[in-house]
Write a structure and sequence with these properties.
single chain, 208 residues, mainly alpha, two-stranded antiparallel sheet, 45% helix
Length: 208
């Protein structure tokens, strides 16, 4: 579209199609002098044929640019890191070319270190109570989507901003009370309804 517009304006750039080709990250990695890292993030969210389309390029470390007729070869093979949330299966032919490493969900010590990076100087009592509530919530059976690390960080930001009472966060049993500002942690109606039902049952039992 840009080339068509330039041609209408009489721009000399239209004579060379290279002026309208933007280099992608793989192109930049292949042309980089020295070893670099190429990250292909969340490949399971791409088009279903995308992993297969990469097979030859990653095997041969080269790809063809049809518009210019040139072949781009890697000066030095980059380290390729590909992430997936396992939302859909990847082709066997693609997986055969990968070294698989599963990253488990962070334990409390690791999560504490993550929080310290994002919230240096946060009150220790606040983070202790919030982490306890967060991990207890993840243990509740029947959750459609367990709260993740990013959602914990969002929740902590809201707790700090609103100066939430620490006693409102601290809870021994997550089924007894919906945590404050739970909308940062629970991301669908089913899970909110589950916690509301558990809280209702807990209140009824306590009255009995």
């Amino acid at each position: 579209v840009t080339r068509l517009r330039d041609s209408q304006l009489g721009d000399e750039r239209v004579k060379d199609v290279k002026n309208y080709i933007k280099k992608g990250k793989m192109w930049e990695a292949f042309e980089h002098k020295g070893r670099c890292v190429l990250l292909i993030d969340e490949i399971d969210k791409a088009d279903i044929e995308f992993p297969n389309d990469l097979l030859q390029e990653l095997d041969r470390m080269e790809f063809h640019v049809y518009e210019t007729g040139e072949t781009i070869k890697a000066i030095e093979r980059p380290i390729v890191i590909i992430t997936s949330n396992n939302e859909k299966e990847l082709p066997d032919a693609f997986l055969r070319r990968c070294f698989f490493h599963y990253i488990k969900f962070p334990d409390e010590d690791t999560m504490q270190a993550i929080v310290d990076v994002h919230f240096p100087g946060i009150k220790k009592r606040l983070i202790a109570n919030a982490l306890a509530s967060f991990y207890d919530m993840r243990k509740v059976p029947g959750l459609k989507k367990k709260p993740s690390t990013s959602e914990l960080l969002d929740w902590l930001k809201l707790l700090v901003t609103d100066d939430i009472d620490l006693d409102a966060i601290k809870q021994k049993d997550p089924s007894k009370l919906i945590p404050p500002l739970h909308g940062a942690l629970l991301k669908n109606e089913q899970d909110v309804a589950l916690f509301e039902r558990l809280a209702f049952l807990a209140r009824r039992e306590s009255r009995g």
